[in-house]
């Protein structure tokens, strides 16, 4: 019995492993996650690094406003300073602060009358070591800063508005990029489908021509030409498949999904046409484009920067209140207070402040010029996208008609070639024209979607619920 025990254990282990292998064979592999366009946009807006940057910029602007507003409030500081000195003046002053000064500190023991007025008292000139611990609370309150605090607050508020509009602009740009990649996948797959159909049709032609060659109806050079055309079609099929993979990779990156994670797309999306004339759309873009709004707020920030620089030309007024405790050890003995006000005005600083004002003014003028340049660019982008969207729509209709005509033409040429009326050149030419018509139709559909989205991006209306 002991002899067969190891054999039984091995047999049982083999049975378990075979059962596990059997069940593992039926476990489905990793399936691709399928996301429709809205899901892709939601994922990108949640995970895209570009939006993380814009949100961080907004957080910086909000922190800047808190910092600027805090400058209006009193500033309270607490400190503890330890001092040990035998300097005559400082030592006597520290004893006074500690309320510990005595007549003997003046050298009273050496004063014997008027004849000793010329004697240098040792206790006053050589006081020995004195220890002091100063505990202090101090409050400072600015009353007037020449517009410095107000300018900082105005600038911070303008930066917040600019950052928020920049976040909207970044969001819409991400949506546009996702649409390009999302539709790019569908476009590439349509090219793959066209290439597969072309491969099947060309392979059928090659087989048909082989039969005709065997029957002596056509010459072998026709077969060779058809075979060359088949290889070209297969190359186009490989290129289409690579384009599909590249589009999916690009979508992975935009969504923040690892490339190794399977991903698939849902139904294609086609943005609706934008109503209105170019003049109306141009005016709408100038008013609503988030990039322009951000730049206008940046212009306001630069104007506040001029105000900040000019603050150095005006006086500064503030109040101060201080509470001190001085002792030869850490404690709260010898309490004293100090109240004060300060007025300072830089009368001359070698034109340092005036130079800062001139530099801020020049920066403001530069920002104005950049805004005007951007406005002209957006107006041009609207006109260009409007024309291209109209052209793409017309091209799509034309390509649909071209596909129908090319399909009919290819069928006719096939029949004529089978009857010995058409040449191989005509047959391959018709097939090439048919393949091109189908590919052009796919490209036209993609271009129309992109141009409509580009127009909506220019006028600041590219949101998933506005497509």
From TrEMBL:
Instruction: Give yes or no: UniProt keyword rRNA-binding.
Output: no
Instruction: Give a Gene Ontology cellular component term annotated to this protein.
Output: cell outer membrane
Please provide an example of a Pfam family that matches this protein in its UniProt record: OEP
Annotated signal sequence is 1-32
Note the superkingdom of the native organism.
Bacteria
One Gene Ontology term of the molecular function aspect: porin activity
Q: Which InterPro entries match?
A: OMP_efflux, TolC-like
Compartments where located:
Cell outer membrane
Sorted UniProt keywords: Cell outer membrane, Membrane, Signal, Transmembrane, Transmembrane beta strand, Transport
What SUPFAM superfamilies does the entry give? Outer membrane efflux proteins (OEP) (SSF56954)
Give the family, as the similarity comment puts it: Belongs to the outer membrane factor (OMF) (TC 1.B.17) family.
Which PANTHER family does the entry link to? OUTER MEMBRANE PROTEIN TOLC
Descriptive protein name: Outer membrane efflux protein
Which species?
Sulfuriferula multivorans
